[in-house]
Automatic annotation (TrEMBL):
InterPro entries linked to this entry: AB_hydrolase_fold (IPR029058), PGAP1-ab_dom-like (IPR012908)
Name this protein carries in UniProt: Esterase/lipase family protein
Domain GPI inositol-deacylase PGAP1-like alpha/beta: 94-165
Pfam families: PGAP1 (PF07819)
Superkingdom per UniProt: Bacteria
Parts of the chain that traverse the membrane: none
Organism: Sphingosinicella xenopeptidilytica
Residues forming coiled coils: none
Length: 248
């Protein structure tokens, strides 16, 4: 077991967020309104034009990642959604299609691709990077329950009803607890009502880190603090990753 695997060893006793906190996820609606009305890219580092793909969370699609992607465009990045409709889970063959998609973007743009994954989409980003690390620049995950305990969330039962596999036995060969070799920044919120914050914590190491912001789990896709972190992470020169340092 290497350092990455040790950092993600499943602990015992993790529980999904309580129902009271889950109910507070309705705050994501006013969070979206604030983001649309007030969030700006002024003062954020400008992009170098390299391609960025944003993967949606479970039961979400490209429409819900559009506010974030619009601002990435304003910062100067070539960016796109995942283009596979509503994310209903890791259906057989889906990972192969996503890998091919990232390869095609890399070939078309002739530059490494950064991957931003919201919740379940962050798990997809990590698995893609494990298979084609030479084409992926870095990863940022938002509330991704892809480490430690995949049952420490309020979505796993519905996920298993919509799929023919359990959350910890997807139809791919992989070690879900293992991080890819590319830099990874995991963003979580302590107020998450869907994913236990501890289960989204990947720790900190030579090329991986965990950062905390306020807000809801759903609202991570339109969170001004998330935008600031994503902009700073993406602005790093290719191959020269360093831990995030807030400008606040």
């Amino acid at each position: 077991m290497d350092r990455r695997e040790r950092a993600l060893t499943p602990p015992s006793g993790l529980m999904p967020p309580p129902l009271g906190r889950f109910a507070l996820e309705v705050k994501a609606v006013p969070e979206l309104c604030r983001f649309v009305m007030k969030s700006r890219t002024h003062g954020l580092p400008k992009g170098d034009g390299h391609p960025v793909i944003v993967f949606p969370g479970f039961l979400a699609g490209d429409a819900l990642t559009w506010p974030l992607r619009r601002r990435l465009t304003a910062l100067g990045y070539w960016n796109a959604g995942w283009r596979f409709g509503t994310n209903l889970g890791l259906k057989p063959g889906l990972l192969v299609q996503m890998v091919h998609y990232v390869k095609s973007v890399h070939a078309g743009q002739k530059r490494k691709v950064s991957l931003v994954g919201w919740s379940l989409g962050g798990l997809y980003a990590r698995e893609i990077a494990k298979r084609i690390p030479d084409r992926v620049r870095l990863i940022v995950t938002l509330g991704t329950p892809a480490a430690r305990d995949l049952h420490a969330n309020n979505a796993w039962r519905l996920y298993e009803r919509l799929n023919d596999h359990t959350v910890d036995a997807p139809p791919i060969e992989t070690n879900l607890m293992e991080l890819p070799s590319v830099p990874v920044t995991a963003i979580l919120t302590p107020f998450d009502g869907i994913v236990a914050p501890a289960s989204a914590d990947i720790g900190n190491g030579p090329t991986w880190e965990t950062l905390k912001v306020g807000g809801t789990h759903i609202g991570l896709a339109w969170n001004a603090d998330v935008l600031r972190i994503v902009a700073e992470r993406l602005a790093q020169p290719d191959g020269s990753w360093a831990p995030y340092r807030s400008r606040a």
